[in-house]
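Consider this record:
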Amino acid sequence: MRIGCLQFAPQVGDVDNNLNRADSVLSKANPDDLDLLVLPELAFSGYNFKSLQHISPFLEHSGSGITSLWARTTALKYNCNVVVGYPEKVDVSDNWPTSPEYYNSAIVVNGDGETIANYRKTFLYYTDETWALEGQGFFDGFIPGLGNASMGICELSMKIKANVFVLIMANSGMDLKFEAPWHEFEFAFHVLECESNVVILSMAWLTREDGRMFSRMPNEPDMDTLTYWVTRLEPLIRSENGDEVIVIFCNRTGIEDDAVYAGTSAVIGIQDGEVKIYGLLGRGQKDLLVVDTNNPPYAKLVHRPEPNHPSVLHGELQKMNTSPASSTPTGSGGSQSSQPDRSQQNNTAQYARGATFFCGFT
């Protein structure tokens, strides 16, 4: 499967320029033979709105707004499925004075330009709650060319009780509702129950790091954020199903007011307790990540406990040995996966069943 993640830096309310920013990244990459193209949450409106009044000029009807038009045009151009986030307005009745409903949504358009799904975010972050309603549950369905798919919008967080633990990623773009314990893993169990082989996550996820320090290394991924995302998929890692589950994290980058986004878009594969990395962007890169999951992954994500805090895990990449003709996946639509040295694989640390993953918490 050839997957593209378009990571860029939209700005609040700057729709025309945001469209141009996305088109510029795509035109430079000029990808071919894509099966799926994913864009971030609220890709063209920007994310960090303060109120319903603030976002109102940018609300769209599903199927007739600027986002759906862009998705159809792009899907037809590249003959692929396109997933993109947008702020949805729903007129529930033609009879006044019924009020419209508003959702943080993602539209899915197939290669024929047809809308085949429209998902409404279920776990709302506090920024969403200033204007949006909760959706009715996570998406699952069969998407031709992809298979059984689950989809979420920045929904790797749990509904947690405030007294369960101390959250040290408080400004991480998570959907905090303070209602369920850490081990609920609502989204991950949904994926297992639906037997999905593809998981699509459109995101506007913040970093917990200081913005000035964070932006100094734009090509470096935010490993704390990536490890947290993977940790929230622990039930998939523990699963004995045996089939690989492809997970697409399409995040945005950039800064909106005091909100600093983590970037680090990635395509991973989870199978037999291992987390394989097919492709990964840096925290500040504005680029198109393209990977082919039919090729071998170029790295694995391994975890190591912090020496003085064994319950706190940190993720790091362990690259596989590559042949001279192979290269690490990059952006600009030209990524290749490196060939692993099979003799080294047994020495690679992995997420073993029965391990405990509480990365980022103490």
The longest strand covers residues 309-319.
